[in-house]
Amino acid sequence: METLDWITVQGLSATGFHGVYPEERRDGQQFVVDLELGLHVVTDTDDLHDTVDYSVIAGDVVAIITGEPVDLIETLAGRIAHRCLAEPLVSVAKVRVHKPQAPMGFTFTDVSVSITRSKQ
Predict the structure, then answer these.
(1) Which residues are catalytic?
(2) How far apart are CA 37 and CA 114, in angstroms?
(3) So what's the pLDDT on residue 21?
(4) Predicted model pTM
(5) In this structure, what CATH number is given to the domain that contains residue 15?
(6) SMART domains under this entry (predicted)?
(7) Quick check: is 114 in a domain?
(8) Beta 112-118 vs 92-98: how paired, if at all?
(9) Does 57 have pLDDT greater than 70?
(10) For residue 77, with 0-12 CB atoms within 10 Å meaning exposed, 13-18 middle and 19 or more buried, which class applies?
(11) Cβ distance 103 to 21 under 8 Å?
(12) Within-domain flag for 113
């Protein structure tokens, strides 16, 4: 079994217009994304080219959150995972999309979807 190292980015937050209800598409709401990127980290070169630039990935994830609306956070998570796997060194992408203001009509702390995708 392959051993991977992990780069984690937690709490990326942006306003998106995703959801199945018209008010979600009209008003927008906060979405929060956590990422875990599985790769082999080279630790002896101290060179950015031997890893992933997580600030670039984070910027692209925010652009996905604020970009073209989708109905489901599952779809949003899939788009984000696809972007993460576009990095040549990333073998596995674990993505959690939080929708803490989901219109459920109940008191709750958070609702989220977690997916794991890999190149294999």
Answers:
(1) 99
(2) 13
(3) 95
(4) 0.94
(5) 3.30.1130.10
(6) FolB
(7) no
(8) antiparallel
(9) yes
(10) buried
(11) yes
(12) no
pLDDT bin (cut points 50, 70, 90) of residue 115 is: very high
Query: How confident is the model at residue 118, as a pLDDT?
Result: 97
> Does 53 map to a domain?
yes
What is the Cα–Cα distance from 7 to 27, expressed in whole angstroms?
33
Domain count, the chain: 1
Q: Answer for the pair 16, 23: CB distance below 8 angstroms, yes or no.
A: no
Measure the CA–CA gap between 37 and 95, rounded to whole angstroms.
Answer: 9
pLDDT of residue 89: 95
| In a domain? residue 87 | yes
pLDDT at 1 over 60: no
Placement of tokens 């674990």 in the chain: 94
Q: How many Å apart are CA 108 and CA 44, to the nearest integer?
A: 45
Range of the domain at 83: 5-103
Residue found by looking up tokens 């939080």 in the block: 98
Q: Residue 44: how many CB atoms within 10 A of its CB?
A: 6
pLDDT bin (cut points 50, 70, 90) of residue 120 is: confident
- Class of residue 93 by CB neighbours under 10 A (exposed 0-12, middle 13-18, buried 19+): buried
